[in-house]
Specification:
This protein is mainly alpha-helical and about 300 residues long. It is built from 13 helices and 2 strands, in the order αβααβαααααααααα. The chain has a two-stranded antiparallel sheet. Helix 4 (about 95-130) packs antiparallel against helix 6 (about 140-160). The longest helix has about 35 residues, at about 95-130. The chain is globular.
């Protein structure tokens, strides 16, 4: 009986969806995607190289930034095979096991990135609230433990997802709404009761991004409260300026994801094209823009990036 089930699982094929186009237009559409992936991978790799080789950047903020760069590289690598494979080679089919592996890594890395954005908010709060003890509070071993907790938390929450999906029989038209696999889309393809998956998916979102967003918001409430107590106007602006890069990263990560979640809640009344575009933005925009945003705002980092790229 188990061998029959294994055969059925291996034979399950999902069809990915790309942007609507005519004829060979998908080859032209692949050009901006290739450009985005090249910039994302090169940008985040350069950030990692610079932070590792420059001792003056071995500070908490840049160590957290390097963790963010590793996560963004992971997201790019996890989504690249199906997105580029579909537009370059018209490869729309993906097996169940490959789909489950991809959705696991996508959700895992998104959960880790959400946690890192929370840790970076904590970093900014300590730097502004208690600058004299900043270097003694956020020491390297403590930062490493915080990063490890973020990874373990993501693993514990996300690991059940592929197992919850693998127990289903898939007997419907297996057309996914995106160019990659995510839990919500694969779950809808099952011909079984998906109540457990719906509930677990909701609590997963609530306990990761929902909780992290709340704590980031509270961190900035305390940051603004501290900044407003500074008597010097110049010092006040300088303190706020150190938060701009992080705020941009938070908006780049959460805004497309929240928008996509809201639109999917009213799926019958929303445009499929809009869902596809927001899906691309939620996965491709943070890895693309984070290195650019931080390089623009940090003069020291910007000079080192230009020096590396000019070699």
């Amino acid at each position: 009986m188990s061998s029959v089930n294994d055969t059925k699982l291996k034979s399950v094929i999902f069809l990915l969806t790309r942007l609507p186009n005519d004829g060979d237009a998908h080859l032209w559409i692949s050009i901006p995607f290739c450009f985005i992936y090249v910039i994302s991978i090169v940008g985040n790799s350069v950030i990692l190289f610079i932070v590792k080789t420059d001792p003056s950047l071995h500070q908490p903020m840049y160590i957290f930034l390097s963790m963010l760069a590793i996560t963004d590289l992971g997201i790019s690598i996890a989504t690249m095979p199906t997105i580029l494979g579909m537009y370059l080679f018209n490869s729309r089919e993906i097996s169940l096991n490959a789909c489950l592996a991809q959705l696991f890594f996508i959700h895992l890395l998104q959960c880790i990135e959400s946690s890192l954005l929370l840790l970076m908010a904590f970093d900014r709060f300590i730097a502004i609230y208690n600058p004299l003890r900043y270097a003694t509070i956020l020491i390297l071993p403590r930062i490493a433990k915080m990063g490890l907790v973020a990874v373990i938390r993501a693993m514990v929450i996300i690991l059940p997802l592929p197992f919850l999906l693998k127990r289903f029989q898939y007997c419907r038209a297996n057309f996914l709404s995106h160019s990659y696999c995510v839990h919500r889309e694969v779950m809808k393809m099952a011909c079984s009761d998906i109540t457990v998956n719906i509930i677990y998916g909701f609590f997963t979102k609530l306990l990761t991004m929902g909780l992290d967003m709340l704590l980031i918001f509270l961190s900035y409430v305390m940051i603004f409260k501290t900044v407003l107590s500074i008597t010097s106007y110049e010092e006040c602006l300088r303190a706020l300026n150190t938060c701009i890069s992080h705020l941009c990263a938070v908006l780049l990560f959460y805004t497309p994801d929240i928008s996509l979640t809201v639109i999917q809640s009213f799926e019958k009344y929303s445009s499929p094209l809009l869902q596809i575009l927001l899906g691309y933005m939620s996965l491709l925009l943070p890895p693309l823009m984070n290195p650019i945003v931080y390089s623009m705002k940090s003069k020291h980092l910007r000079v080192r990036v230009i020096r590396v790229l000019m070699k």
